[in-house]
Amino acid sequence: MRVGVLTGGGDCPGLNAVIRAVVRKGIKDYGYEFVGFRDGWRGPLDGDTMPLDISAVRGILPRGGTILGSSRTNLMKVEGGVEKVKQTMSELGVDALVAIGGEDTLGVATQLTEQGVNVVGVPKTIDNDLNATDYTFGFDTAVNIATEAIDRLHTTAESHHRALVVEVMGRHAGWIALHSGMAAGANVILIPERPFDIDEVVAHVESRFQTNYAPIVVVAEGAHPKEGQMQLQTGERDSFGHVRLGGIGQRLAEELEQRTGKESRSVVLGHVQRGGTPSAFDRVLATRLGVNAIEAVQAGAFGQMVALQGTEIVRVNLSAATDKLKTVPEERYAEAEVFFG
């Protein structure tokens, strides 16, 4: 059997660990051949490939990013896209695809499965917002990076008696903000699931200043105020229709400075959360998912995604991962609220 492998969407610590595990397991145990498609769904659309053998994946376990490259190409918006993918696979003798990606990449994989293409999915997103899996690789690394940054910012905020607003990733789900904010002792955590009251945020910040400590506000990029409280600008959209977010941290810092009279600064962690070597947890999780993905191919379990549930790797329908987002439940946010102010 010949198997194609691709990585789509944003890069993520642990992608290379998945690729390595898929290839090594497939060659060693099943004698498969592998083809790497470059830059997400653009690869099978354009027939852009690279060889994937044991030598190609040697030494990539600790590397961030993806040796296959990535993109946000939406082949469903390309005229005749599905037929082009089928033609590419036929010409290359590719019998099945392992698609490693998040909501958008796996959404395309789901539609391809419905069109008769053999696809197995591997969940990937640092936002940890994919349904049907307890954790996605990359999330632990992103939280560790954000936590270390917030730890460092505490001391500079206190030295200058200013408020610092730390913007982290999280378009629709505030898992990174919640975990890093709790771990680093943030004074306020703002997430997309709970529109915030700017008056309450100001009160928490002022309370912190009164105790001679500098406040740290952690805000997810998709967090937003209650209607009518602050004006936010939105940016352009990508090929999947998502607005390019960013700016809430700066806007919030300006509002805090105006209302409290205290100097406020924003720090946007941005893509640094995605970069660099994956944590030990993410390396192990990504490796386990890769091994189980190729076992799913061997079993003919197409239209399935491998997922972490408890401590076990299981198979679920691809559609289960993308039919709804896994967002922060109210009770989890309530745990963090205990420490606000």
Walkthrough of the structure:
With 341 residues, the protein is of the alpha/beta class. The protein folds into 2 domains: 182 residues, Rossmann fold (3-Layer(aba) Sandwich); 135 residues, Phosphofructokinase domain (Rossmann fold, 3-Layer(aba) Sandwich), CATH 3.40.50. Helix content is 41%, strand content 17%. It has 12 helices and 11 strands. The strands form 2 sheets. Strands 3-2-1-4-5-10-11 form a 7-stranded mixed β-sheet, sandwiched between helices. A 4-stranded parallel β-sheet has the order 7-8-6-9, sandwiched between helices. The chain starts with a strand and ends with a helix. The mean pLDDT is 92.
CATH topology of the largest domain: Rossmann fold
CATH architecture of the largest domain: 3-Layer(aba) Sandwich
Count all strands and give the number: 11
The top-level CATH class of the largest domain is Alpha Beta
Shape: elongated
Beta-strand level of the residues, as a percent range? 15-25%
Number of helices: 12
Fold blueprint:
Layout: E1 2-7, H1 15-30, E2 33-37, H2 42-46, E3 49-52, H3 54-57, H4 81-92, E4 96-101, H5 103-114, E5 119-123, H6 139-160, E6 163-168, H7 175-184, E7 188-190, H8 198-210, E8 216-220, H9 248-260, E9 264-268, H10 280-298, E10 304-309, E11 312-317, H11 318-322, H12 330-337
Parallel strand pairs: 1-2, 1-4, 4-5, 5-10, 6-8, 6-9, 7-8
Antiparallel strand pairs: 2-3, 10-11
Helix pairs in contact: 1-10, 6-7
Subunit structure: Homodimer or homotetramer.
Site (Important for catalytic activity and substrate specificity): 104
Protein name: Pyrophosphate--fructose 6-phosphate 1-phosphotransferase
